[in-house]
Amino acid sequence: MSTAEATPTLDESFPRCYEAVLGGRLETPENVLYFPARPALSVEVKPKRGKLWTAVFAEDGAGFLTGLFTTPDDRTLCVVCGGAGYFIDTDDPERSWFRVECTPIRFALPFAKHGLLAFGNFTDFVAYRVDSDSIDVRLDVAWRTARLGWDELDVTRTTEDRIEGQAWHAPDDLMVGFSVDVQTGEHEGGAYPADT
Questions:
Q1: Residue 188's pLDDT band (cuts 50, 70, 90)
Q2: Do 100 and 16 share a structural domain?
Q3: What are the backbone dihedrals phi and psi of residue 171, each rounded to the nearest 5 degrees, phi first?
Q4: Is 14 in contact with 74 (CB distance < 8 Å)?
Q5: DSSP β-ladder status, 151-158 and 107-111
Q6: DSSP letter string over 9-25?
Q7: Number of helices followed by number of strands (H, E) in the chain
Q8: For the chain, does the N or the C end have fewer beta carbons within 10 angstroms?
Q9: Beta carbons within 8 Å of 14's beta carbon, 6+ residues apart
């Protein structure tokens, strides 16, 4: 899923032990300032253990990705709202949550074979995996790519093992191709070639 225009849904690429329902987009006045961001989306979650809970999420900007994503950890939900991403432990949402280290999120790419959930913005990608030693939210950064372009990163194709796309190379004012290894985050091509 890579556009915010589509109706947000729950991506179920990974097993989960909770039910999540999108409550819908919240209507908020345009002439009111919100700090740090405009509340935009409500989500209702029923964990396997514990009580039903509802949360409201804010967006970084209109037009960016919005959706619910299962993660490599079966009790952690990822909510992306207008480009802002959150990982939430569905059993303990008030204490155990943190933001996805990617802003704004334009792409959320699950790679179940490798137990990874990758996110992309305008210039690079970051992927998360299960950290079995963590006490709270059991996800950790698996890898982060080097910067792949000056801007306009676009995914053209994914396979079980690779992310392929194009990114803008400013000095030549053209789009250049790149390919990222999903297991390592190492890349070929792009506007900033990998160090040799």
A1: very high
A2: yes
A3: -55, -35
A4: yes
A5: unpaired
A6: -EE-SS--SEEEEEEEE
A7: 0, 16
A8: C
A9: 70, 71, 72, 74, 110, 112, 117
Rounded to two decimals, the pTM is 0.89
* Whether residue 116 is found in the same domain as residue 193: no
Q: Report the alpha-carbon distance of residue 80 to residue 96 in Å, rounded.
A: 17
Indicate if 97 and 170 belong to the same structural domain.
Answer: no
What are the two backbone dihedrals, phi and then psi, of residue 31, each rounded to the nearest 5 degrees?
-90, 15
In terms of residue numbers, what domain contains 25?
A: 10-144
**Pair (74, 153) in one structural domain:** no
Choose from 92-96, 114-118, 171-175 the range with maximum mean pLDDT.
114-118
Q: Which amino acid is at 195?
A: D
Give the number of domains in the chain.
Answer: 2
Same-domain status, 24 and 91: yes
The CA distance from 14 to 74, in Å, is: 7
For residue 5, what pLDDT band results from cuts at 50, 70 and 90? very low
**Confidence label for 15 from pLDDT (cuts 50, 70 and 90):** very high
